């Protein structure tokens, strides 16, 4: 699931709902803890929830992109299509 944004004014996606890590990787809890910490810090730094969600998203986006790329490659290996989506023809 690749979304342009993971938050609205009053709601934000967290954990697996935002990065969809391959369950075989065994890093679900590892990924959720830093995300929870980033969310808590973002909310603590401002009273503006929308701003806090945007800050949270910018903090976790690099990890999310990496996790999604790893999951796509893993799925490709298991299906015999190891080329990343951007290189498939």
TrEMBL record:
Protein's name in the database: 2-polyprenyl-6-methoxyphenol hydroxylase-like FAD-dependent oxidoreductase
Region (Disordered): 65-89
InterPro entries given in the database record: FAD/NAD-bd_sf, FAD_aromatic-hydroxylase
Coiled coil spans: none
């Amino acid at each position: 699931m690749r979304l342009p944004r993971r938050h609205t004014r009053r709601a934000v996606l967290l954990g697996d709902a935002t990065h969809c890590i391959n369950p075989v990787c065994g890093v679900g809890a590892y990924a959720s803890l830093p995300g929870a910490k980033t969310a808590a810090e973002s909310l603590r730094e401002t009273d503006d929830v929308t701003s806090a969600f945007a800050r949270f998203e910018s903090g976790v986006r690099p990890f999310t992109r990496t996790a999604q790329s790893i999951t796509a490659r893993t799925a490709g290996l298991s299906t015999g299509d190891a080329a990343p989506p951007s290189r498939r023809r």
